[in-house]
């Protein structure tokens, strides 16, 4: 059984929208694109690189696919991620796309949750869900996430799309590893354990 792993950059208040640049995702008038780099460091980069080592595929929503497909095919070949991102198998969940131009990309057919269940049952390594907030919500609602790998950065954005948005399914999490980088970013790996427990003091 393959693992579905949600890999996401978050602000301290949980915003995941447009960490990479001002023009990455301005939906709903978002004005804070590019918030991650100023609060990142080389330890964060090393952690992210490590997330891709056991993975042999990415699972992307349409918006993240469009952003990546416009950037990575012509990205600097000296960037250590360029070859990895272009060479890795990409599975794309979209109701609007009919074809994919980026190499090694496959469009999932039918219901996204059903298609991901089939992927999980297929042969292969881990599958990383990168960005793709809407798709991540679908996966969480359908109990398809095996692990969360999160970088939680020391900045408050205030508005924007959140990974754990209103209506998220209540879920207990087991910490697999948690560390803090020199910039104050928390790098956390967590596994869902089912419904949370409740108690009182």
Automatic annotation (TrEMBL):
Pfam families with a match to the protein in the record: RibD_C
Matching InterPro entries: DHFR-like_dom_sf (IPR024072), RibDG_C (IPR002734), Riboflavin_Biosynth_HTPR (IPR050765)
**Residue limits of the Bacterial bifunctional deaminase-reductase C-terminal domain?**
2-186
What name is this protein filed under? Dihydrofolate reductase family protein
Which taxonomic lineage is given here? Bacteria, Bacillati, Actinomycetota, Actinomycetes, Kitasatosporales
């Amino acid at each position: 059984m393959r693992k579905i792993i949600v890999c996401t950059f978050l602000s301290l208040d949980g915003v995941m929208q447009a960490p990479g640049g001002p023009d990455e995702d301005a939906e709903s008038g978002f004005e804070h694109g590019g918030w991650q780099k100023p609060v990142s460091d080389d330890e964060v980069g090393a952690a992210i690189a490590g997330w891709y080592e056991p993975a042999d595929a990415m699972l992307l929503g349409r918006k993240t696919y469009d952003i990546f497909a416009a950037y990575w095919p012509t990205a600097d070949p000296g960037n250590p991620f360029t070859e990895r991102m272009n060479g890795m198998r990409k599975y794309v969940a979209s109701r609007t796309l009919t074809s994919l131009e980026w190499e090694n990309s496959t469009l999932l057919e039918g219901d996204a949750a059903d298609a991901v269940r089939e992927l999980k049952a297929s042969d292969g390594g881990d599958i990383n869900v990168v960005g793709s907030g809407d798709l991540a919500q679908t996966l969480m609602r359908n109990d398809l996430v095996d692990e969360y790998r999160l970088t939680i950065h020391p900045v408050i954005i205030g508005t924007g799309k959140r990974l754990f948005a209103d209506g998220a399914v209540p879920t207990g999490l087991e910490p697999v590893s948690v560390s803090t980088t020199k910039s104050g970013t928390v790098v956390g790996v967590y596994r869902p354990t089912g419904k949370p427990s409740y108690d009182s003091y």
